[in-house]
Amino acid sequence: MQKIVFTSILLLFSCQDNVTSDIKNTYDDDIADLTYLNGYFFTTNYDLSMDGGSQIDLFKFNVNDIDGATADDIYLEDSYDLSMNGQGYLAITNDGNDLYLQSKETKAIFKVSSIGERDFTKIDTIQTNWQPSGIAYNNDKDSLITLYRNLDDLNEYRMRTISKDIEHSGTDITFNVDMIDTSYNGIYAIEYYNSKMYFLGVDTSGTDILLSFQNNTFTIEASISDSTIVGICQTDIGEIWGSFRDRRFEKILSLN
What we know:
Elements: H1 2-15, E1 30-37, E2 40-46, E3 57-63, E4 74-81, E5 90-94, E6 99-103, E7 108-112, E8 118-123, E9 130-138, E10 143-150, E11 156-162, E12 169-176, E13 187-193, E14 196-202, E15 208-214, E16 217-224, E17 229-234, E18 239-244, E19 248-254
Antiparallel strand pairs: 1-2, 2-3, 3-4, 5-6, 6-7, 7-8, 9-10, 10-11, 11-12, 13-14, 14-15, 15-16, 17-18, 18-19
């Protein structure tokens, strides 16, 4: 009962200024961050409708043979209502079984199944000046990694390791990324692979770039000319793929 009440309150709070209608229309929405699980890409729509009620879906895209896959091999297989509204951009990752999403707008972290069933909604305990900038799964520690940007110093970021139930925290480091712009964009998606972090962000010239971070060293792995990129994920064959606003998916980098 408590989860149902919380979800209702979340929807009510998010929709109180958007009372034009309760009709869901995700057709024109951009997609957001993505993750790869059991042969499928999962992402959500970035709710642009400004309507009331539930407006966000979990989208499941089938990938026919990720090794050598092209745009023609990826197609929408299903979607699931997440009973959410007003969350802004949603970062997403998975632990091999379940999905974890974090809202850039509300800081809420959601654990859901691969068919959109909600397990919990929780908030990472962090000061209000830290804005969510990505979530990833650390398979070495069976934990989540959350990245935040300091709204009082837009060059500064904070990376935290937290348990999958969001109850316990581990490492917590802050660092500056001088090559990233200090406007609205900054770093906005992250991934973890083989003991190395990968950050997707916009550099000081306005170009989207993929950075790796290991042993306190940043390396530019790729420049991405298509500025409609919105998320990244790693696959089980050692590649980083990107999601684009118009529901395209492309390989960005081979890691092996």
